[in-house]
Amino acid sequence: MIVRRLSLLFLWGGLVLAALTGGLGLRRTHAQAEATPTPPPPPVAEKTATSPAPVATSPPGGGGDGGGKKTPTLTPRPPGGTSVPPAGTPGEMSSPTAWPTETPTATLTPTPTVPPTLLRLVVFMDANGNGDFDTGEGVDHLLALARWETWQTYGYTADGYLTFSVPPKIPAGAQIAVEAPYLHWSSQVKAPELSGLAETALKLELPEFPVFLP
User: Fold this and answer.
1) How many CA atoms lie within 13 A of 30 on its CB side?
2) 214: Cβ–Cβ under 8 A, 6 or more apart, which residues?
3) Do the domain assignments include residue 125?
4) Residue 185 maps to which CATH number?
5) Domain range enclosing 167
6) Which end of the chain is more exposed for a tag (fewer CB within 10 A), N or C?
7) Each residue of 4-54: pLDDT tens digit?
């Protein structure tokens, strides 16, 4: 009986000790868990704008230092690695240049000049009697006229010549009357072809004076 009680007592003591040992282990584990802080989450890195890396470009004109050395000019590079082509490269977007529009000018075509159709009257005094108009034999300031139907013109001789301009309405071959009214002389002249010349002559003889007066 005593042995049974001792066995129960030891069993009970073992259970109590086991319970105490287990509870102490749980408290220690909980205490360790509370003593060990949970590390905070890593901070999120904020995106900051990075300054573009400078790009070395050569100034136009080859520099003026006299030594042939070009001093590079630092040009900021835009973010993202996009390169900007320097001025004057094929990739540059330049604004279109407005060129002046040429206004066509009208070319004036000269009108060809048609020579006039002429009618000439020759009046001379045949002083030497050879029948030809020689130098110094022309008659000046003699009134003469030319007419055809309703057309009529007149003029005065100079150095023995008088030239009339025949209008285009007079057909070639038409009879034009040429007159010297003060001398009661007239002649019929055929109208010339277009831009042609027709001529008639009035020859005056030297008057005969008596050798002796009656």
Assistant:
1) 6
2) none
3) yes
4) 2.60.40.10
5) 117-204
6) C
7) 666 676 677 667 666 666 555 555 655 555 555 556 666 655 555 455 555
